[in-house]
Amino acid sequence: MALLFRFLQAAVVAEHTSNWAVLVSTSRFWFNYRHLANVLSLYRTVKRLGIPDSQIILMLPDDMACNPRNAFPGTVYSNADRAVDLYGDNIEVDYRGYEVTVENFIRLLTDRLDEDVPRSKRLGSDAGSNVLVYMTGHGGDQFLKFQDAEEIGAWDLADAFGQMWEKKRYHELLFMIDTCQANTMYTHFYSPNIVATGSSEIDQSSYSHHADNDVGVAVIDRWTYYVLEFLETQVTSVTSKLNLGDLFDSYDESKIHSQPGVRWDLFPGGEQEGRLRTVVDFFGNVQNVEVENANATEPGSLKEDLAEIARLVEKWQKRDEEYSAILGDSAGNVTEDLPSSSLHLKLKSTVGPTKMAEDSSWGKRLVGISVVGACTAIWVAGSILGRSSV
Amino acid sequence: MMTKTGDQESPASASQVDQPSVKRAPPPETPAAVQTRFRVIAAFWAVIIFLGFPIWWKTTSIYRASLPIEEMVDWADGKACRPVFPLEIHLATPSMQSFEAQHLLRTTQHTLDDLNEFAAHHLRLKLTNGSTTAHNSEDSSESVKYPAETADTALTVRLLPQDGLAGPWSELHAATTQLDIFYPPSQVPVPSSSNSPLSAFIAAELQRLYGEEKATIAHILSGNTAGLDSTSPQLAEDIDRRLRRSMKYAETYHLSFSLFTPGSEPSSWDIEAAVNEYVSPLLQALSPISNFTVDTQVQLYANFAPTAPKPEYDESEAAWTLKKEDLSAFVNAAEWPLNPSIGNGPTINFILYVPDPSQSPLLVNENRASSWMIPQWGGVFLLNPPLSNTEQGGRSNPAHLSQDSLGPAFMTFSHQLLTLLGTPSTPASLPLRLQTSIRIRAATLLLSASATMGSLARLTESLPSIPIPATVATSVSTTLSHLSASCVYLREGRFGAALASARVAETEAERSFFEKSMVGQVYFPDEHKVAVYLPLLGPIGVPLVVGLLKELKRIAGRRKAKGTAS
């Protein structure tokens, strides 16, 4: 019995309660079409496997669908057969254009954002969340370029994940990166429960898979293409039992043209344990819907609760009645309330634009005129004096 | 200088040129020129040392306010505070002699202490006289909100003699915090005996009432229930499940009630009355724990996601049914305007779905239920209103949903809200469950704020490049003072006050950790620093240093000359 109990606990520990995905492309401009297509393909996959938009953070530095060079306006394709329009009509980009910066990315991960940043732009993961972080762009030895303007170093990324772990912002994290020399990006990670995988070793390029002649540029990167091929053909539903081991075994160096890497050592139990995590642990959404049994009678069940809430409601009604009885007449309460609410409404309707500036504009104009006047006087005096001296 | 070095390098050519005329040395510098050069060099160095260096130092140094690191780590390690939960239970014995009651109290307390295996959570019995009992129990909900100087009364046990009973039995008042125990008068313990069936019964009864709470608190404090032998695996699993599905604590929760329907009707509902009637009392009762805001919306023509499985018609039930495994795809998260970004608190969604007349009634296949809950997200209720016949011969939903027809749905939402907030399922009295939930929240917040302090301390130590503004130091000291206040309140048994302090501590701790300016961005390796400084310092630094050296050499030479001369 005790053994069974312990086993149950172990099973509980391994479970996660929500799924989050952070999908980042870091390059803009038309010839980097494939990087945005990479991210959008993955976006489509995680959405298909059930992660809702509210739990996907999508960072797109450029808008390929609306690019004037796009021969197929309003669409983005990741394959020359153009079977699936990745842009579709149901896409939520959380950070776009120049919002995609190193700073915003780190702020997103560590949640050090302004209070007025909406929840849709925040990573609301907690100690029970599995987080998928996918990045693609142009990179080099231990850095990844953001928009040709700045770069994120492997140290910064490691520190951001370290802070996430400190604040219990993930349960397990799968880091994927498709860029040149990608495997160098995860060398500095130090926080536990991370599985990291990249497309190419140090001093290796990461290549695009194929170009679409009508679009005019390459539409997808090799590594991402084969990862997606695995996800789309093998992981067909949320109930799929395929694990990370199967995904990483599907890497074929002769097809990818670079050596993909996997880092297991941060994961408790190492490679053996990590391989057993299912793919949908990270790419799918866990949602254990609980149907309430209307006929159950055990404590805490729907029926019991309903009875208790009904009693509570009754009690409050009684209290309200008593309260109004104390006030004198039961109608007094109501009449008192009504005018105040209508007054409130009236106030609301008359709210107009407010004046932002506190001080009068006339004062400022006066100061300006006097300054101009003084300057003119000095100039006139100077020119007169100068002439007289000559 | 140039000519001189040139001369040395090519002595042959120099000798040829020098043949007719003697080598012409430059005219000796006038003392005034030497003086000027000295001043120029001194001025450059003065600017560098007194202006440039301080500015460089000031602009490149990172402001790090000093934090009480040791204290923070102590809190995180649990050295600063050992949370205890002494529950005060009043024993009212209206029909007992005072010495009998005293004796009963002593023996019961003794039995309780023997039964207890988790020292941090213990029950303290106290005698009250019967007249104030009823009053106390009525007021218990207020005492939570307005913490008095005395400990909160967790429960009042009223002992009532009843003739013709074989053994004692108990009855828990569902609407108050009162437990009535009826006992045969013959079982009043005699002062000589050290044990009695009545006290054993009371102790067991109390133990049972607080079993779940104790297990939950043990689970929170230690991370698992392994420390308690008496906890059944079933209960442990329940607790674990509840902790997992309940929402993360927030200062404010937004409740969003939405009416979704695929057609044009119903287009209005008595939502204000329904919320006032069914939800407000619960929110009032929950107000010590969190704040709540309520939003409502009506969305017509809300369709399922194109990929979502369609409901199927079940002939035997004459109803449309949804499969349980398909329920997670029921909510069309992409198109239904849910999760509004209001403020910074999480939103709990409650969806009232009225199916299309052609698909009514709609039920869940497995157990004919009409509602389900999505952990950490909210709840869904399928409302099948009676259909009316239209003139065209079809059937349609009513245009307006009255308060009465919304009743079951909103009762269910209230229940789901309780569950989502992690209210324990036992004992069967809502006031007691809310009190338990206050204690559980206080424990959770105390631990989480302490853990945040520890994280911040470790972060400060491990990332030397991260700035720490003064506001963080202020927040940290506020957190620490409220944490210790909360710990003291817990020890005194004033759980309402403890929760209030713990809430402040949690908010401040979060604020300090998530301080906006604390972004240790862009780590520079040393070679990057050299690369940044060298192009600047090379061209400027070399002439400056060489000038300084030459000047020093000249001064040294003159001093030497003076020394030999004198």
Describe the 3D structure.
- The complex is a heterodimer of chains A (390) and B (566).
- Chain A has 390 residues and is an alpha/beta fold.
- Chain A has helices at residues 2-13, 33-48, 102-110, 154-166, 222-233, 244-249, 253-256, 270-275, 280-283, 302-327, 330-349, 361-389, and strands spanning 18-25, 56-60, 95-96, 129-136, 139-140, 143-146, 150-153, 172-178, 194-198, 208-211, 218-221, 261-263, 290-291.
- A seven-stranded mixed beta sheet of chain A has the order 3-2-1-4-8-9-12.
- Chain B is an alpha/beta fold and 566 residues long.
- In chain B, 48% of the residues lie in helices and 15% in strands.
- In chain B, the strands form five sheets. A five-stranded mixed beta sheet of chain B has the order 2-1-3-5-4, with helices on both faces.
- In chain B, helix 4 (69-77) crosses helix 12 (430-462), helix 8 (211-222) crosses helix 9 (233-245) and helix 12 runs antiparallel to helix 13 (470-492).
- In chain B, 36% of the residues are buried.
- The model of chain B is unreliable at 1-18 and 130-148 (pLDDT under 50).
- The chains are: A alpha/beta (390), B alpha/beta (566).
- At the A-B interface, helix 1, helix 3, helix 4, strand 13 and helix 10 of A face helix 9, helix 10, strand 13, helix 11 and helix 12 of B.
What's the helix and strand layout?
The complex is a heterodimer of chains A (390) and B (566).
Chain A: H1 2-13, E1 18-25, H2 33-48, E2 56-60, E3 95-96, H3 102-110, E4 129-136, E5 139-140, E6 143-146, E7 150-153, H4 154-166, E8 172-178, E9 194-198, E10 208-211, E11 218-221, H5 222-233, H6 244-249, H7 253-256, E12 261-263, H8 270-275, H9 280-283, E13 290-291, H10 302-327, H11 330-349, H12 361-389
Parallel strand pairs in A: 1-2, 1-4, 2-3, 4-8, 8-9
Antiparallel strand pairs in A: 5-6, 6-7, 9-12, 10-11
Helix pairs in contact in A: 2-5, 10-11
Chain B: H1 2-9, H2 11-18, H3 31-60, H4 69-77, E1 85-92, H5 98-115, E2 121-128, H6 133-145, E3 153-161, E4 169-172, E5 178-183, H7 197-209, H8 211-222, H9 233-245, E6 252-260, E7 268-269, H10 271-286, E8 291-299, E9 312-314, E10 319-322, E11 347-353, E12 362-364, E13 371-374, E14 378-382, E15 388-389, E16 395-396, E17 400-401, H11 403-420, H12 430-462, H13 470-492, H14 495-513, H15 526-565
Parallel strand pairs in B: 1-2, 1-3, 3-5, 6-8, 6-11, 7-17, 10-12, 11-14
Antiparallel strand pairs in B: 4-5, 9-10, 13-14, 15-16
Helix pairs in contact in B: 3-15, 4-12, 5-7, 8-9, 8-12, 10-11, 12-13, 12-14, 13-14
